[in-house]
Specification:
The complex is a heterodimer of chains A (248) and B (113). Chain A is α+β, with helices and mostly antiparallel strands. In chain A, helix 2 runs parallel beside helix 6 and helix 6 crosses helix 9. Chain B is mostly helical and 113 residues long. Chain B has a single domain, classed as Fumarate reductase/succinate dehydrogenase, transmembrane subunit (3 helical TM bundles of succinate and fumarate reductases, Up-down Bundle), CATH 1.20.1300. Chain B is elongated and about 55 Å long. The chains are: A alpha+beta (248), B mainly alpha (113). Chains A and B meet through helix 7 and helix 9 of A and helix 1 and helix 3 of B.
Chain lengths: 248, 113
C-alpha cells in the first residue's frame, strides 16, 4: 500500500569554494513509504535543487557509493527506508572523512589503505595456464566467502571511533579484506600483508568496539575478522620471538 | 612499518579474558555461598591451603591470577583510551606496572605457602 507523506529532509550542504563552513538546508519532500532516503535525495536533485551533490550508482546495495550519516547513523541511502523514520530525516556526509562537497566525502585515504594490504590473489607459485585452474573445495571457499561480500562502502570507517581518533588506523574494511585473501587456500601472500596489518597502526589499533560489524550492510562482520587477525598475529609473534628456529 | 609488540599484552589479555569468563563467576558464586554460611567441606581453609601447598596447585593459582591481572590491566588501558585520555604510554606503564607488581607478589606469596 502506497501511503503518501511529506518529510522534512535536512541535508548538510558545503561548497568549499563559497562556504566558510558547512550548513544545513531543509527540503520538504513528498514521498511514499516504499521510498528509501536515496529516492528522497533524487527527488530533491530533480525537482527542488539541482546543486545538491551526493554519490550514488546502483540503488541496490551493491556498489557501496551512497553511504551517508542518516539521523546520525552510517547507512546506505538505498537501504534506509523512509518508513523506518519519522517525518524529519537528517542526512550528513559519512563521519570521520573530510567533505569534498555536500554529501560527497574525500575517500583517498581509504583507497590508499585498501591498496596497501594487497587485496588480490598472490599465488603461492606461478602455474602455467596449461596446468589448469586452482581448485577449491566448498569448505575452503566457506572460510573466506563472507569477507568477499564487502562493497567498500566505508560505513565501518564512519562508525569506528578508533578511526575517528587515530586517522592512521588501517581500519575495519582494509583489514577484513586482507583477512579474506589470507584465508584463501589459493593465496600465498600472507607474509607480505602481515607487514602492513600486524603493525601498531594496523590491527593493533583496534580496541574491539564492534561498531563496524553493527553498521555493515552486507554482514561481513569486520570486527570478527579483526579478532581472528589478532589471534593469528599473536601466534606469529610468539613463533617469531620464542621459536625463531621454526620456519614459517 | 615495523610489526607491533602488542601481541605480548594482547595474548595475555585474550587468555585472561577466556580464563576469567569461566573461573570468575564460579569464584563469585563460591564466595557468595561461603558468605551465606554454606561452604562445603572441600573448600575449608585446610583443604585450600593444601591445594596451594602442592606445586601443581601453585601453578594453577599463579596462572589464573597472572592472566586475570594482565587481562584487567590491558582492558583498563583500552577503556581509559576510549574515555578520551590521550596518554597511552603513561597509562600503559601504570596499568602494566600494577599487573607486574601483582604478578611478582603472587609469585612471592605462593612460594611462602
Amino acid at each position: 500500500m502506497s501511503e503518501e507523506r511529506q518529510i522534512q529532509l535536512e541535508v548538510l550542504r558545503y561548497n568549499p569554494e563559497t562556504d566558510s563552513q558547512p550548513r544545513y538546508q531543509t527540503y520538504t519532500v513528498p514521498c511514499v513509504n516504499e521510498w528509501v532516503v536515496l529516492d528522497a535525495l533524487n527527488y530533491v536533485k530533480e525537482n527542488l535543487d539541482p546543486t545538491l551533490s551526493y554519490r550514488w550508482s546502483c540503488h541496490m546495495a551493491v556498489c557501496g557509493s551512497c553511504g551517508y550519516m542518516i539521523n546520525g547513523e552510517p547507512k546506505l541511502g538505498c537501504k534506509a527506508f523512509i518508513h523506518e523514520y519519522g517525518d524529519h530525516i537528517r542526512v550528513e556526509p559519512l563521519a570521520n572523512f573530510p567533505i569534498e562537497r555536500d554529501l560527497v566525502t574525500v575517500v583517498e585515504d581509504f583507497i590508499a589503505k585498501l591498496a596497501s594490504v594487497k587485496p588480490y590473489l598472490i599465488p603461492k607459485e606461478d602455474k602455467p595456464i596449461s596446468a589448469g585452474e586452482f581448485r577449491q573445495t566448498p569448505a575452503e571457499l566457506k572460510k573466506y566467502k563472507q569477507y568477499t561480500l564487502c562493497i567498500n562502502c566505508m560505513l565501518c570507517y564512519a562508525a569506528c571511533p578508533q578511526y575517528g581518533l587515530v586517522p592512521e588506523f588501517l581500519g575495519p574494511a582494509a583489514i577484513s579484506m586482507a583477512h579474506r585473501y589470507n584465508q584463501d587456500s589459493r593465496d600465498g601472500g600472507r607474509d607480505q600483508r602481515q607487514e602492513v596489518i600486524a603493525t601498531d597502526e594496523g590491527v593493533w589499533e583496534c580496541s574491539f568496539v564492534g561498531a563496524c560489524s553493527e553498521v555493515c550492510p552486507k554482514h561481513v562482520d569486520p570486527a570478527g575478522a579483526l579478532q581472528q587477525v589478532k589471534v593469528a598475529s599473536t601466534i606469529d609473534w610468539y613463533k617469531e620471538h620464542l621459536m625463531p628456529w621454526v620456519k614459517k | 612499518m615495523a610489526k607491533s609488540n602488542k601481541p605480548i599484552f594482547w595474548g595475555l589479555f585474550a587468555a585472561g579474558g577466556t580464563v576469567t569468563a569461566f573461573v570468575t563467576p564460579v569464584l563469585v558464586l563460591l564466595t557468595l555461598f561461603a558468605a551465606m554460611g554454606f561452604s562445603p567441606d572441600l573448600f575449608t581453609y585446610e583443604h585450600l591451603r593444601a591445594f596451594a601447598h602442592n606445586w601443581l596447585g601453585k601453578l594453577v593459582i599463579f596462572g589464573v591470577i597472572l592472566v586475570s591481572l594482565w587481562h584487567a590491566a590491558h582492558r583498563l588501558r583500552v577503556t581509559v583510551h576510549d574515555f578520551g585520555v590521550r596518554a597511552d604510554a603513561v597509562v600503559a606503564y601504570v596499568v602494566y606496572g600494577i599487573a607486574g607488581l601483582g604478578t611478582l607478589m603472587t609469585f612471592v606469596y605462593l612460594l611462602r605457602i
